[in-house]
Amino acid sequence: MSNGYFKIHRPGINSTFQDLGRFNLHHIGIPLSGVMDKRNYLIGNKLVENSNNISAVEFAYQGPLLKLQSTKVTAAITGDVNFKILRANSNIENGQCYETFELNDGDQIDIISTNKSVYGYFFINGGFEIESFWKSFSINTKAKVGPNDGAKFNFNQKLFIKNKESKFQKKKIEHLNSKIEFIRVLKGTNFDYFSEEAKNNFFNKEFIVSKLTDRMGMRIEGPKIENIVETNIRSEGLIKGVIQVPGDGNPIIMLSDYGTIGGYPKIGVVISADHDRLAQLIPGSKIKFKLVELNEAENLYKLYEIETKNILNQIR
């Protein structure tokens, strides 16, 4: 184990280790988990010259306050994040997202808040000294699965560092987190359970992101979505992005730590290309949905992958 570590002086809100998630475990009730914003995760690891299976610290709204001990690291933060670097010599620097910076022994990083978004990411070259579970470093706090005993960070905890000290290299990219007018969805397996008025309302009226939103799911409020067949069904498998409609008519969108089965009818599923931007919507945000066909969803995801690759190729 490395002697270098970060000591947590403030854990922040829902700060955890995350990577791209754990696959092929639905049959034992373990969801994908992983980062809420995949593109920002990939950009950050590329900035600090990590591979894509290296864990990042994901935080929501407010990040941790960390003090580095006994080493130096190359680090980066992605997302729309306000942070400061508190140097050991008492100098204070305003942090800049999407570019690398060096932290030395005794320096602190204060990740103050995200700006009109939910999630941000903190990366260090080489990653953290943590144990993988089922080939992933992602933490699912509801299932208590993953490193750190499947729990969020705590005050005074130590985060040990895996890397050996290396020469600092300045890298940066100009990146703007884009927004879209609609969240695009495919028809769900129970699409015909809902009245024509409900379908028209779902695709033509606005919904509001409620405060009842976390890594497991996002509850939205708006016109009630009327079910004309059965409000509860035999439990079926779920995936990330599925939109369930319980008896009260207020939809729930399943996110990274979704349950793998559920008994509410499903009106739709958010396409993979829109997951990042959906996850970053803060409570009170307005959502409008747009129906697309499967071939369009596949093409949109291919475009998302091409755009992401082009962004990563711009990092110098």
How would you describe this protein?
With 316 residues, the protein is α+β, with helices and mostly antiparallel strands. The chain has two domains: 156 residues, no CATH class; 131 residues, Cyclophilin, CATH 2.40.100. It has four helices and 21 strands. It has an eight-stranded mixed sheet. The longest helix is centred in the C-terminal third of the chain and has 20 residues. The protein is elongated, with a radius of gyration of 20 Å. The mean pLDDT is 95.
Instruction: Bin the strand percentage.
Output: 25-35%
Distance between the termini: 31 Å
Name the helicity range. 10-25%
- Average pLDDT, to the nearest integer? 95
User: Could you name the ranges where pLDDT drops below 50 across 5 or more consecutive residues?
Assistant: none
Q: Can you write the helix and strand succession as a string?
A: EEHEEEEEEEEEEHEEEEEEEHEEH
Q: What's the alpha carbon Rg, rounded to whole Å?
A: 20 Å
Q: From the structure provided, what is the oligomeric state, counting identical versus distinct chains?
A: single chain
Tell me about the largest β-sheet. 8 strands, mixed
* Contiguous helical run count: 4
- Main-sheet strand order equals 20-13-14-17-16-19-12-21
Structural class: alpha+beta
Total tally of structural domains = 2
General form: elongated
Number of strands: 21
Secondary structure elements and their pairing?
Elements lengths: L4 E6 L5 E3 L19 H10 L8 E5 L4 E5 L3 E6 L2 E6 L5 E3 L6 E3 L4 E7 L4 E6 L33 E3 L22 E5 L8 H9 L2 E7 L3 E5 L14 E2 L4 E3 L7 E3 L6 E2 L3 E5 L4 H5 L6 E2 L1 E3 L2 H20 L3
Parallel strand pairs: 12-21
Antiparallel strand pairs: 1-4, 1-11, 2-3, 3-10, 4-9, 5-8, 5-10, 6-7, 6-9, 12-19, 13-14, 13-20, 14-17, 15-18, 16-17, 16-19
